[in-house]
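hi! just following up on the protien thing from before. the input was this:
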Amino acid sequence: MKGKGYFMRERRLTVLVILCAAVAATLLISSQFLSAQNGKGKEGKGGDRDTPPPFYNPYPPGILPADLDFEIARVLREVDFIEAEALAQLRALPPPTLTNQPPILAHTGQRLNVLLGKVMNFDKNISPFNDRACAFCHMPYVGFSGPIPSVNLTMVAYPGSFQFRAGKRTAQRYTYSPSFPVLNFNQTQEAFFGGNFWDSRATGYKLGSPDEEQAQGPPVDTQEHALPDTACISFRLQTAVYKPFFIEVWGDAIDTIKFPHNTEEICETPGGAKVFGTNTMPIKLSPAERSIANDVYDHWAQSLDQYETSPDVSAFSSKFDAFLGDPATFPLSADEMAGYNLFKGKANCNSCHLDGRSTAPTPPPPQGIPGMPSIIRTSQISSALPRIHLASASEIWDWELSCEAVPALGQARMTIGHNLRQVRTAKCRRPRRAMSLWCRHSAPPQRPPGLTSRRSSSTTATLRA
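and the predicted 3d structure came back as:
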């Protein structure tokens, strides 16, 4: 027979099992609640729960850093923290005063729009898998650019919502990007000015602001946020916790859009998926609703631009800003002034990196070295704009040339023996034909008198800046 002690032990075991089950259930419910707060595990209108994207890694070994998963998780935690900060700032802001004719939001209205842009910039839900905010590639502590050191040293472009599908270029900085004018050709200087993105494809022709149009690119870029339809922004904003602030600034037209029942299924499918074919507007809306969704997309970009324009991002607080404002009170050191003179003088840097104060001079004689063909040095910014500036090949020894490295360049470097490595950090749009011309000479040219195979140490820091 079983004794009394046996039944006591059995009773304790039963109580312990029940207690453990209760604790496990509590933890499960809590984790689901927190996931719902963060936009994860959200059920679509069809009742289907979001599933993580399949693993995507077509890259050769060594491209994806070993710490990538850990670093992505770190940055996402930081994004969540700043989003919560922006929400707290919005809620603490006194409401603006609606006044005047035409109506304006007086007093705190501008700050309201800035903070609205900030909270949207750090919202991960603006992506199919609720895992990528705009700020993921543009964090404040690295000048609003890419925040993962190992990515910067390897793959360079940042993985988008569909991990690990990555973009084509490194992330540009937000700072001062709103100051770029609409893309235009200056007849006097015979050069193009303005636009955003490395190739200035965000012209600003529609909204009057390249920065606003730049903001509209990543959400539907298949290698970044990867939303399949611009109307997905309106759809996600309809359930955003900050929607009342969006309506306060831009009105409540967003609530008049009646999205079809399969919208969540569409918006959680990355753009470029086979199911969409060539359809860039898979969400079926009436013409009036599509017009409203387009307006919302414009307003979303305009608020992001307001955030990037604000001192929160573009502070104009550097020593160089102070020098330009009052050189007598904030002078540059001798080395700094030498670097600035080189920047706007012989180095020709400001032919591409415009300082608004001067224009680069024509390169001084000699205009090239006999037997050495000219190569393309470009301030060219778009394949649709075929104007290309030429520079003498002698410039390679004079200063760091802004040209992209190609295999032929490596061959030329080994053959000629000059310091061509400085060219390897190039950003030329059309270097291949130039480099093939470079390697077409029959015999290596002689080194120019007085030039060595290394740059002088006095110019290296300036040229890298």
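Residues 68-309 form a domain with the Cytochrome Bc1 Complex; Chain D, domain 2 fold (CATH 1.10.760.10).
The chain has 15 helices and six strands.
cheers
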